[in-house]
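User: Show me a protein chain along with its predicted structure.
Assistant: Here is one chain, sequence first, then structure tokens.
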Amino acid sequence: MRRVTKLVIAGVMVGAAAVAVAATAAARSRPPDSALAAALPASVMTVVRPNGGVEWWRSERAPAVWAGPLAAVAGGVRWHDQGAAVSWGELSIHGAGEAAHTGVVVVRIDPRRVTLRLDAVDPGGLAPIGAQWSLAAAPAQSLVAVNAGQFTVGGPWGWVVRGGREYQAARAAPLAPAVVISRDGSARIVQPGAIDSAMRSGNVVEAFQSYPLLLAGGRIPEPLRGSGRGVDVAHRDARLALGVLGDGTVLLALTRYEGLGGALELLPLGLTTPEMAALMGALGCRDAVLLDGGVSGQLAVREASGETHRWPGLRRVPLGLVALP
């Protein structure tokens, strides 16, 4: 199942011109917001709280814009190591179908207190070739390690900048933004139409592209608000996303299947793409993008005490993103 999903995603990315044509055609015949919301597969999400479940999202009333964190969701995160440069928490969500038992690992990173950089298993400083990176390859001192971007058979997809050097040129696709680390250490998600400007600025130290865009200034992209617009809005999978809060904090969210007591947490079951966009908006992100999830999704967090928590994946990838002290 995951292999088919990967081929569909890769096909959309490589055929960026076809996606752009489809998006343009969709914009010309755009129905009202209510029709877009109604076109989403019927689903409801409830956050699990000590005093019972709280419904916080319903497909037929899905908001087009998130103005800030939703108390029911953000307040439901069970945080660890609060106040540290890196803190992490856990959240439980009940959704529809395969998402009935979904656990979410949430990580907050203060980029002013850590160094964010791309990591890869590559010979002689060359661009990453193939898929060799996993949590085991991350530097031992990493406070956070997570797989980055999407990839094809030959390596990472799209723009790759490491240490200020461009290894791969950006690819044009309407929903493929770039995660950029600037020379001052700040992190931001650069929208597809602004990537060229970012490239010319000379201010980019690290960068990678991913797909699809989940939030842009708090707004859900139109292709995620209805079917037939270039994104599969019905497929459920284990998800991984990166977002940026209004204060520049980087937020990661990884979903895991919690059924059977978590014994099958590596099963690629979970949220749809629109549901993941809603989750990132409810957690307070202004901008967000999906990273490669499914069996590729992997995350490690080291607490201030030195204790490390790992959520491994089943597949190696070309690139990782690490936060170093």
